Amino acid sequence: MNAIEELESQVKAREVPKHVGIIMDGNGRWAESRGLPRLEGHREGSTSVREVTRSARRIGLKALTLYAFSSQNWSRPPDEVAGLMELLREYLLKEREEIMDNGIKLNAIGELDKLPKYVKEPLDALRTESAKNQGLVLTLALSYGGREELVSGVRALAAKVASGALSLDDITEETVAGALWTHDLPPVDLVIRSSGEQRLSNFLLWQTAYSEFLFSPIAWPDFRAREFAEALLHFQTRERRFGLTGAQLRRAGT
Ligand code: IPE
Ligand code: IPE
Ligand code: MG
Question: Residue 68 C-alpha to ligand 3 middle, in angstroms?
Fold first, then answer.
């Protein structure tokens, strides 16, 4: 067993989080600090995506959600946006085999209609092809914003109320959660953000109400299977109290 597998088996021996979200930050600074174009950081970051996804699958996570491109990222310089879109297309074409061979279900959340056709087409094709896979659900947050998602959900619910299909009393936590793009995903247990920034940047606002947060100083291109397993081991030392007291939890034997 190599060192990574050793770490992963330690994670598996304890309670594994169901759903981990990652804010993959620091590609640009990683490249700039090496005198490279920012796009090289994004390219290297896609290797981290591959490694961390493999690790998540080996560990047995149910869901992994990766923040790859935010609604706000459209305002970056056009050549960086275009480079990121090209990389996404490349990723979707290159990873097809690995996704299918490993029973991964590819999912996507965000304002997907804003994506260029050359990304949207391979994305839709792989989502359809992998829809029946039973393994890890890998969700790419693309052109994603938590506020944008809430606005879209509120609109959908309001339309149902206006048409009489839904009464005000039927608006519950469940109906709100069901109106979001993440309606078929479990709540997020852990959010990891690489590269030192300690903010949510519009990622999964509703779904992270009771998440644990782990901020790593490591830039995303250097965040690999080892760093991922270490983050999960750290998460497993946390006591999630959900409003209760520590004594109540111990009495309940959790
Ligand atoms: C994350 O890296 C990738 C995207 C937001 C698309 P950044 O590009 O934000 O890298 P930094 O934060 O500028 O270093
Ligand atoms: C958040 O990173 C979005 C992604 C990782 C895709 P940013 O680098 O865009 O976030 P801010 O602007 O620093 O908050
Ligand atoms: Mg950034």
Answer: 11
